[in-house]
């Protein structure tokens, strides 16, 4: 083999010419025995992992993905539940609002109330049990129904009684949903008394003491009556079903109450 510079003979494995000193071969860099773990690409996390480490990492990522999916589903269910609750509240409050607004027309004709409120009252209910048991001249009711003691009732009704001059005399809102669990109303420990309250006491204080949902509200000229149905066991061990009626004036000031045993009739 000849040197490419001086042309003199050199050995095949010589890295440097012995005659002129020219470098014949460049030394190749040594191969790295270990990878540079500090400069991995972002998408090559599993490149230098063992099979076991890669499997654990893969399972971890799958678990994290599943957890995210669970959170997304849970969030969607919560949102759906909130929407449903809001819809129920809006629907359940529709009848009570309609009754309160209709009551503003007490002393006026029903037609004027219908025109102003865009509500249509009928002569009869679509539920036979209401026609047979309730007393009213006109009725506006929910299209949805509720089962009470095996019978179908509307979820709520707004009924009107008219005066001899054909004007609105009383407006009554009845929430049958309050009685769907038990037609006797809520179970209490004892008979409820409002004797401690005086005329003129605040509505909120009386309502808080009663601690029941009214199943009926009656609007008349100058008064609003709240009807509560409940049952309890008396000292003799007998079951009693009672209707409590708390009466307030137009300014929500307490007037008086009545308490009557009415079981089993509640309409």
Task: Describe this entry's structure for a reader.
The protein has 267 residues and is of the alpha+beta class. It has two domains: 63-170, no CATH class; 181-267. Helices cover 28% and strands 24% of the residues. The protein has four helices and ten strands. It has helices at 51-103, 110-117, 128-133, 203-210, and strands at residues 138-141, 145-148, 151-154, 156-162, 168-175, 186-187, 216-220, 223-233, 239-249, 254-261. Strands 1, 4, 5, 6, 7, 8, 9 and 10 form an eight-stranded mixed beta sheet that branches. A hairpin with a 2-residue loop joins β7 and β8. The protein is elongated. It starts with 50 loop residues before the first helix and ends in a 6-residue tail after the last strand. The model is unreliable at 83-91 (pLDDT under 50).
Q: Tell the overall outline.
A: elongated
Q: Describe the sheet with the most strands.
A: 8 strands, mixed
* Unreliable stretches: 83-91
Tally of extended strands? 10
Structural class: alpha+beta
In total, how many domains does the architecture comprise? Answer: 2
Q: What's the number of helices?
A: 4
Mean pLDDT score, rounded? 84
Topology (elements, then pairings):
Elements: H1 51-103, H2 110-117, H3 128-133, E1 138-141, E2 145-148, E3 151-154, E4 156-162, E5 168-175, E6 186-187, H4 203-210, E7 216-220, E8 223-233, E9 239-249, E10 254-261
Parallel strand pairs: 6-8
Antiparallel strand pairs: 1-4, 2-3, 4-5, 5-7, 7-8, 8-9, 9-10
List keywords for this structure.
single chain, 267 residues, alpha+beta, 2 domains, 8-stranded mixed sheet, two-stranded antiparallel ribbon, 4 helices, 28% helix
